[in-house]
Amino acid sequence: MELWNDDGVADKTDLYDTIAGTGKALAHGKRLEMLELLAQGERSVQELARTVGLKLTTASAHLQVLNEAGLVATRRQGTSVMYRLAGEDVAGLLSVLCRVADTHRADVAAVRRTYLDNEGIRLVGREELMQAATEGRALVLDVRPAEEYAAGHVPGAVSVPLEELADRLAEIPADTEVVAYCRGRYCVLSYDAVRLLQASGRDAALLEDGILEWRRDGLLVTAA
């Protein structure tokens, strides 16, 4: 049944075509990377371009597409334009998109297994993590850059950015399991951190989720 008749302003096709504009905005890998980064906290176009490896003009064009689709919002800070997710539901949309693609497309799952080889890495769920942390049996380790940790992290997590981890191993208790996490389920930083910790003789595991999934489900995120 159409929303409007032939003499009306719009019909169901118009509605779905308009909604499809949001899907089109997601149809680029670099835009998905940017959304994952913005799930960590507000960033300038310069920071986003540098992190995802794009020229400034190209990054700006991608952000314009996301802005027009209503997926990001902006504010001006001095001479810079700061970007953020338009809402926590955008984090949820990105997370669900990734999960559906991983579940129903064999090629996505194959690439994920190649990129994120978790052989020999134990995965820890949220409930197990929080119980172990509460009982003092686990150290929750945030291996994202310090500014992302400051913008919001899992309650009780300790910040040791991956690039500093090798030089700060002495700060990690040798008799406590370490559970590492980073930006999201497909963030390689935590995988690298777990392997480094295991190579140093530490008992290390990987949190199944990252901040993207944490925000998606409305769980508490603590700002420094």
UniProtKB/TrEMBL annotation:
Rhodanese domain: residues covered: 134-223
Taxonomy, superkingdom: Bacteria
Keywords: DNA-binding, Transcription, Transcription regulation
Cleaved signal peptide residues: none
GO MF term list: DNA binding; DNA-binding transcription factor activity; thiosulfate-cyanide sulfurtransferase activity
InterPro entries, per database record: ArsR-like_HTH, HTH_ArsR_DNA-bd_dom, Metal_resp_trans_reg, Rhodanese-like_dom, Rhodanese-like_dom_sf, Thiosulphate_STrfase_CS, WH-like_DNA-bd_sf, WH_DNA-bd_sf
HTH arsR-type domain boundaries: 11-105
Protein name: ArsR family transcriptional regulator
